[in-house]
Design a protein that fits this description.
globular; binds magnesium ion; 7-stranded mixed beta sheet; two-stranded antiparallel sheet; Spore Coat Polysaccharide Biosynthesis Protein SpsA, Chain A; alpha/beta
Length: 263
């Protein structure tokens, strides 16, 4: 696993804001959750342990029956830079992120990170995202940059589905992104401000494709950076057939809207 430690200048264990390797500004890490009570504490603690200056976490929870929100609330007295948005029910990953993006715009965060709650995304990579965002508008953590897929413990059919979705998306959209469905990424605020967030239609994973495509179509600079994705060991994936079909159609929808300048 790549170690980003060379990018961290530590002073008494605290990352300094004047570190030239880290982008300066406020960062919001958005973590959408549905039934992640067994994972959420660990991911929050790991992120805050990095001591990245100006970094807040916003958890967007969809009234998880396993009381994920209660776990987050119990941590809020320990971490003043931890925030929670509660929604009334399972409304989908895409709209959870839209809620987080609007919060980031309202509160003038400079860099906005998307990250899963289930520890599939290594928080140790955050400094590297904040380094790369200095020279790009959207940094995408990619599992498929190298010849070998950087995915650990996924069943073959899940890997084939993800890689198949990537090739399918590249062929139809012509967007030069090798891992368009990755959910570990970092936006500059101006990208989110330029996209009409009320016009984001994906509920599930095609949301990632939709955001990348809209950013790319507007001429923003996208950059892929290698990450290692490790399958969750606790809790359940929310992937479903409905989500797959949504992605299959969404890609065509984006292409046609682009052709007719409706994006
Ligand atoms: N708020 C919210 N979060 C969701 C929803 N669906 C998935 N998530 C979260 O999105 C992240 C990725 O979901 P996951 O099921 O791990 O997807 P996978 O890694 O592709 O199998 C996790 O943190 C989930 O808890 C949803 O409908 N609402
Ligand atoms: Mg997952």
């Amino acid at each position: 696993m790549s170690k980003p430690t060379e990018f961290i200048s530590q002073k008494d264990g605290v990352l300094t804001q004047d570190n030239p390797m880290l982008a300066k500004g406020k960062t919001l890490v958005i973590i959408p959750t549905f039934n992640e009570s067994e994972n959420i504490k660990e991911i929050i603690v790991l992120v805050f342990k990095l001591n990245i200056p100006g970094l807040d976490i916003l958890v967007v929870d969809d009234n998880s029956p396993d009381a994920t929100a209660d776990v987050v609330e119990s941590l809020m007295s320990d971490f003043s830079n931890l925030f929670l948005k509660k929604r009334p029910g399972k409304l989908g990953l895409g709209t959870a992120y839209v809620v987080g993006f609007k919060y980031a715009i309202e509160n003038q965060y400079d860099f906005i990170v998307e990250m899963d709650a289930d520890l599939s995304h290594d928080p140790q990579m955050l400094p590297q995202f904040l380094k790369e965002i200095q020279t790009s508008d959207l940094v995408i953590g990619s599992r498929y940059i190298n010849e070998v897929s950087n995915v650990v413990n996924w069943p073959l059919r899940r890997l084939m589905l993800s890689k198949g979705a990537s090739v399918y998306t590249q062929i139809i959209t012509r967007m030069p992104i090798k891992d368009p469905t990755s959910g570990f990424k970092c936006f500059r605020r101006k990208v989110l401000e330029a996209i009409n967030l009320d016009n984001i239609h994906s509920g599930g994973y095609s949301f990632q494709i939709e955001m990348n495509f809209k950013a790319w179509n507007k001429g923003f600079k996208l950059k892929e950076m290698p990450i290692i994705f490790v399958d969750r060991t606790v809790g359940k994936s929310k992937m479903s057939k409905k989500i797959i079909w949504e992605a299959i159609w969404m890609v065509w929808g984006l292409k046609f809207k682009q052709l007719f300048k409706q994006l």
